[in-house]
Amino acid sequence: MISEVAIPVPTQAAMKVTQVAIIPTEASKDAERPALTPELLAASGARYSRNNEGLEAILSKIDPKNLDKSVESIFKMVDYGHQSIADMVPVAIFMDNISLWLAYYLWTLCPTAGGQESSTRYIKLSKEGLVQPSSLGGSVTDTTKWYQLMDGCFSAYQSALQIFDDLFEADPALAKIPSNLLAEKSDKANKQTARMQRNYSFDRARYFLPTAALTNVMMIMSARGWVQLCQQLLSHNLPEALQLGELIKEELRLAAPRMVRHAELKETTKRGQEEQFQNLVARARAEGPEFLARFRQQPDHPPTARLQVTLPESLNKGAFVQALRNHENRYAWIGEDLARTAVRFGWDAMALGEIRDLNRHRTGTKYCPLLPRGFYFAYDQIPDKYEEAKSKLLNLSKVGVEANEKAWQLLAEGNPNYVYFTLLGTQFQFEHLTTADKFIYEAELRTGTGAHYRYALHLRDALSLWYKEFPETKGLIQEGTAEPE
Predict the structure, then answer these.
(1) Are 346 and 267 in contact (CB under 8 A)?
(2) Residue 9 and residue 143: Cα distance in Å, rounded?
(3) pLDDT tens figures, 179-207
(4) Confidence band (pLDDT; 50, 70, 90) for 9?
(5) How far apart are CA 345 and CA 160, in angstroms?
């Protein structure tokens, strides 16, 4: 149980959203290529599809002194609610100081967006970066106790980092760093080794990080994508999501002013979100006693992989060998028989730290009901001979148990703020529905060089199920060993 000693709550950084415009390169300028605003680009594309006058004739209608007005002169009858036109309006937006949970949620809504997020693999997070208590919307009755619990989680994170740093010093082989690199004493080798060591510790300590910790995300997608995202955020029941939706809407106004009128709360979306949430609440109430009793005995829920493959009618399994004949790396050719084969794969329990990454694969549909299944804290990463280190880490896991229990209780009460009590080690069910070629790409990527050790394990488990059904493909799929880079 976390101590209730008063802890001063620091002033957190405010959420900030910034639209970034794209300017032509020097090479484009030298070649005298046209440069258009996002909406002018879309208007030109729309006009381009409706006559055969060519690009130069369309651009001749542009008034360089009034680019915004030129949108109307190029395509006077455009309906900017037409989604195919909205798809041609590129917009890049940077979002500072949003929670890890909200960043995860953004990618569930925008899996095809390009972008990046501040990585827990390379950046040490601290308790100074937590969502502002106002983001909890007053639904958490005692924000001081919430902050005390989060402070305990960050303390556990720092302690876990030290545990794995000490383990590395005692046994560098645990990090699987090549022995020749450890033996080399050049500055380049030393820097590479230091980076690998940091990754080794960060990858194993990050499970104690609260999803209420702040991160930064940038995304680039069409105005259509941003409008649809705003509709989801502005229909949400959490103040942080509502705030982000409003800030994105204002920045979208700079790049695509004609689209902003569609970026609004949708009652049907709000009702749909509420129905999904109430389904989770009902499950939490029904499963609560059983879950909490098991959870206190065994916080970590051992994951079980599941795989279901649906072959097209009349397709012979042997066709997969032919489909992989020219597949020399994960980016190489894969035949159409795999591309038209449906695959549903997933795990009954996966830490959110890994779900965040697997959730970002662009293809298909992901399913992840945010009902806690357990708490993973890298206990399996410490060999049994290091008894003291295992004992310390097991003791640290108590804070994860407390946070998960509180999250479950709040969910059962119907409080949506329960997500801010979850950690990156909180386990949930996760499922991905896609096609076989995309499944193989994901398995190759997530077991390849530099892959995080835990999702490499998950994808190897899924591949083992695949090989049981299609043993002739083993050796043709470029499965990696997740060696550090």
Answers:
(1) no
(2) 10
(3) 888 788 888 888 888 888 899 999 999 99
(4) low
(5) 31
Give the chain's largest Cα–Cα span: 77
Token pair of 93, please?
Answer: 């937006």
- Return all residues near 406 (Cβ < 8 A) that are at least 6 apart: 149, 418, 421
As a whole number of angstroms, the distance between CA 227 and CA 233 comes to: 10
Give the other-Cβ count within 10 Å of 466's Cβ. Answer: 24
Q: Look at residues 260, 215, 222 and name the one whose alpha carbon lies nearest to residue 356.
A: 215
Nearest to 375 by CA among 341, 395, 402: 402
Tokens of 48: 């381009």
Residue 207 token pair? 């499970």
Q: How confident is the model at residue 8 (pLDDT cuts 50, 70, 90)?
A: low
pLDDT digits (tens, 9 = 90+) for 35-50: 888 888 887 777 777 7
**DSSP 8-state assignment for residue 386:** -
Query: What CATH number was assigned to the domain covering residues 300-374+425-473?
Result: 3.30.1360.170
- Identity at 216, one-letter amino acid code: N
Q: Which amino acid belongs to residue 110?
A: C
- The CA distance from 412 to 410, in Å, is 5
CA distance 419 to 411: 8
Q: Can you spell out the DSSP letters for 143-180?
A: HHHHHHHHHHHHHHHHHHHHHHHHHHHH-GGGGT--HH
Measured CA to CA in angstroms, residue 350 lies from 244, 295, 346, 362 at distances of: 27, 15, 9, 19
Place of tokens 């909490």: 292
Question: What is the structure's pLDDT at 38?
Answer: 84
Helix, strand or coil, per DSSP, at residue 35: coil
The two structure tokens encoding residue 464: 């083992």
Beta strands 426-435 and 365-367, pairing class: antiparallel
HEC string for 273-297: HHHHHHHHHHHHHHHHHHHHHHHHH
Give the Cα-Cα-Cα angle 435, 440, 444 (nearest 5 degrees).
150
